[in-house]
Amino acid sequence: MIIIKSPQEIQIMREAGKMVAECHAILAERVKPGVTTGELDQIIEKHIRKLGGVPSFKGHMGFPATICVAINDVICHGFPGPRELRAGEVVTIDIGALYKGYHADSAWSYAVGEVSPEIQQLMKVTKECLYRGIAMARPGNRTGDIGNAIQTYAESFHYGVVREFCGHGVGRSLWEAPEIPHYGRPNRGPSLQAGITIAIEPMITLGAWKAKLDRDGWTARTVDGSICVQYEHTLAVTEDEPIIITTL
After folding, report:
1. Helices 143-155 & 117-135 angle (0-180, nearest 10)
2. Per the database record, which ranges form the Peptidase M24 domain (predicted)?
3. What is the pTM of this model?
């Protein structure tokens, strides 16, 4: 069931989203060669709790940490730990915060030092995919319009669009209806209306789009070892422009 949020509920979600956005601002300064993903996890958990929030991911379905870490060929849901980041890598860090009963969720990809022009372009295109998807989040459009906007742009660069993982509704639950695939046909899927709050999170690869799981049952990677990056915002559909919740 798709849950319509009141203006008051959306305002609470904006407070949760501000926490998440602050965390990403911290990461923009902290992601450097030599730092461990475990250190970043501790920094982000401490900041969320200092602001009165609770990490959304920690303990969710048994996930052990505050942040999800995806380095290079990892698509999503990787565990933070003692692994040091290395120059030339790209890392996506996904963060959720729960505040007054409502979640907000955002992932961002970070270059570790200098990355190759190929990775730079992938990051630029994937970020553009996110905002093209957000632009379609209007009343009267459908989830397929969002997915088609993302897929069409990404595939014009011959990139892969991950199918196995998708965007989703956000609210009192971290994941709720509707699902938001990042591919599809226009005018298909559930209709959007004002008050719906969703996360759009395209995961775009330099190669094949198919995923495989590590033995931990969580970490998803590209089947061909190609680089994957991701950008995600939580947003609210309104009668006018969509409101990006996970921003400062």
Report:
1. 160
2. 12-239
3. 0.97
d(CA 93, CA 95): 7
User: Torsions phi, psi of 169, nearest 5?
Assistant: -70, 155
* 197-200 and 203-205 strand pairing: unpaired
Q: Is 9 annotated as a binding residue?
A: no
Structural domain that includes position 17: 7-244
Mode of pairing for the β-strands spanning 67-71 and 90-99: antiparallel
* pLDDT at 1 (0 to 100): 92
- Known binding residue 214? Answer is no
| Spatial separation of the C-alpha atoms in residues 151 and 161, rounded to whole Å | 6
Q: Report residues of the chain scoring pLDDT below 70.
A: none
Residue 57 lies in a domain: yes
CA 106 to chain centre: 5
3-state secondary structure of 194: coil
201 among annotated binding-site residues: yes
E strand or H helix at 109: strand 102-111
**Residue 2 covered by a domain:** no
Residue 98 burial class via C-beta count within 10 angstroms: exposed 0-12, middle 13-18, buried 19 and up: buried
- The domain spanning residue 118 has which CATH number? 3.90.230.10
**Residue 1 domain-assigned?**
no
| Residue closest to 119 by CA, chosen among 155, 93, 90, 159 | 90
Number of domains observed in the structure of the chain: 1
What's the pLDDT tens digit per position in 33-58?
999 999 999 999 999 999 999 999 99
Within-domain flag for 61? yes
* Residue 158 among known ligand-binding residues: no
241 marked ligand binding residue: no
